[in-house]
Design a protein that fits this description.
The protein is an alpha+beta fold. It is built from five helices and ten strands; from the N terminus they run H-E-E-E-E-H-E-H-E-H-E-E-E-H-E. Helix content is 31%, strand content 22%.
C-alpha cells in the first residue's frame, strides 16, 4: 500500500512540475512544428547554432502585433551571431479564427518575417515550456550538445510603444551569453494576451 502511495505521490509531483513548464537552467526538449512555408521545423535543426530565441506569439494579440517589427530586428541582428528566432503560434484557431494557419501565412508575408513562424498544432509545445502569454520569450543556449533555458520573460519593458523602451531584457540576455556571462535578470514577467485554449 505504501508503495502505491509513493508511486501516486511521484506521479502527482511530476504532473505539477510539468504544468509549471521550464525554469532557467532546464534542458529544452526537441519539437517539430509546421512553418508557414509548409515545411516542418525542429529545434534540432539548429544544433549548429549557439542557441535559439523561442517566442510564443500570434496574429491577433495587440501586444504581439506591437512587437512584430522588434522581433524581426532581433532576428536580423542575432541570427548571424548564432541566435535565430523561432516564432510559435500557440493559440487554438477554433477559439480564435484570426490565428489560423492560413492567416499566419498571410501575416508572415505581409510583415516579411525573416524567421520561421510555426503553429503549435494540438497545443502540445507551449505547456511544456510553460508559456502563458503572447508574446512570451524563452532564450535557449547550446551547452554540451543540449539547449538550455537561459532567459524567460518579456522582450523589453514597453509592451505597446517601442519609443518608450528603456530596458531591452532579451537583447541584454543574448549579449550576456555572447560574452560568456549569465543573463541578469534571467527572468522577467511576460506581458501580453493569454494563450487561447478550449
Amino acid at each position: 500500500m505504501k508503495r502505491i502511495q509513493l508511486i501516486l505521490a511521484t506521479l502527482l509531483l511530476s504532473s505539477v512540475i510539468l504544468a509549471q513548464g521550464y525554469k532557467v537552467g532546464d534542458v529544452a526538449s526537441d519539437f517539430t512544428l509546421k512553418n508557414v512555408d509548409g515545411k516542418m521545423v525542429s529545434l534540432s535543426d539548429y544544433n549548429d547554432q549557439k542557441g535559439a530565441i523561442i517566442i510564443f506569439t500570434c496574429n491577433h494579440c495587440p501586444f504581439s502585433v506591437a512587437y512584430e517589427d522588434r522581433i524581426i530586428a532581433l532576428d536580423q541582428k542575432y541570427k548571424k551571431k548564432g541566435f535565430p528566432v523561432i516564432a510559435i503560434n500557440p493559440n487554438d484557431p477554433q477559439v480564435y479564427a484570426e490565428d489560423s494557419y492560413d492567416n499566419m501565412i498571410i501575416r508572415a508575408k505581409e510583415k516579411g518575417f525573416t524567421f520561421p513562424y510555426v503553429i503549435d498544432e494540438g497545443q502540445k509545445v507551449f505547456p511544456v515550456y510553460g508559456a502563458t502569454k503572447t508574446p512570451h520569450v524563452y532564450l535557449l543556449q547550446k551547452v554540451n550538445n543540449v539547449f538550455k533555458v537561459a532567459y524567460i520573460g518579456a522582450i523589453d519593458n514597453s509592451a505597446r510603444d517601442e519609443s518608450m523602451v528603456s530596458k531591452t531584457y532579451l537583447a541584454d540576455a543574448i549579449d550576456a551569453l555572447l560574452k560568456g556571462k549569465q543573463p541578469t535578470p534571467a527572468l522577467t514577467k511576460a506581458v501580453g494576451c493569454s494563450i487561447k485554449t478550449k
